[in-house]
Amino acid sequence: MKYVVGVDVGATKIRVGLFTLSGELLRATTTSTPQEGSDTVVAGLIVSKIFELTPDPRRDVVAVGVGTVGPIDIRRGDVVGAPNVKLRNFKLKAPIEEALRVRTYVVNDCVAAAWGEYTVGAGRGLSNVVYVTLSTGIGCGAVIEDHLLLGKDGNAHEVGHIVLDYSGRFTCGCGGLGHWEGIASGANIPKTAAVLAREWRGPETEAYGRALEGSITPEEVFDYQSRADAFADYLVNFLAEVNAAGVASVVNVYDPELLSLGGSIALRNPKMVESIAKKVRKYVVNRLPELVLTPLGENAVLVGASMIALNTPPNLVKLQKG
Length: 322
Ligand SMILES: [Zn+2]
Description:
By secondary structure, the chain is an alpha/beta fold. Helices cover 39% and strands 21% of the residues. The protein contains 13 helices and 13 strands. A five-stranded mixed beta sheet has the order 3-2-1-4-8. Strand 1 and strand 2 form a beta hairpin. It is globular, with a radius of gyration of 20 Å. Zinc ion binds next to helix 5. Zinc ion is lined by residues 161, 172, 174, 176, 179, 181-182.
């Protein structure tokens, strides 16, 4: 039997999935992302996981698709200067191809997810599909007029760094001020909660106390809100407003027919998606697209990566044919 392999390289974990040539996920395995070692340690680990999934990948695997944390050098298929992985630079395409002698394609993780949404997800049959992840970070991928947008180095649509606030209260992990990701991503929600708590004049609730300490987690924020904590409710509403403004900016830039939301913050809090849908209207100039929670769930990048391998976009083939 012949297969393709999809790989999701995240900042903390790597998932490797074995798929049939009709795109069905057969088996998947998860491992921690190496934080030290040589620049081929990640690729080596991926290869060993592929061997665990199928004994003779050189014979049976037709192609490998990788969706990875960025930024990337798309011509080489390497990760270059990833801010969220200690091992900032590592090779993917060349060492995987060398070890397996199998065509390997590497794209940004949200770009892979957008391709998955377009080919087999909620965007099937549509020509203009955008995927946005609300997770540890905030990212985006776009298929416009049936064309997967990549950019000169493969790092198009860094929408997490769209400026949504210029009060100077919110600093992004990248150092910039007022970035969407710097306010509303999972990594930055604790800091945003602390900023809002210092300004809060309402009742001193449990969530308020935890936020003031700077240690409240995103899960706790949503949990407190579900228990009618007034400060948590204010904070979640603030985050939904920021996310709606960000989503509206994406709609204004790409004019998609469908905008799919994924990532842990969206997937674990479907009410956040409903709330964004309600708030987005007042910020858009373009006709509103359909707004959905991705049906691909936690597998969005993995499935997208498998579709990058199975149904490779022609512009990517051209860039990574070597
Ligand atoms: Zn930023």
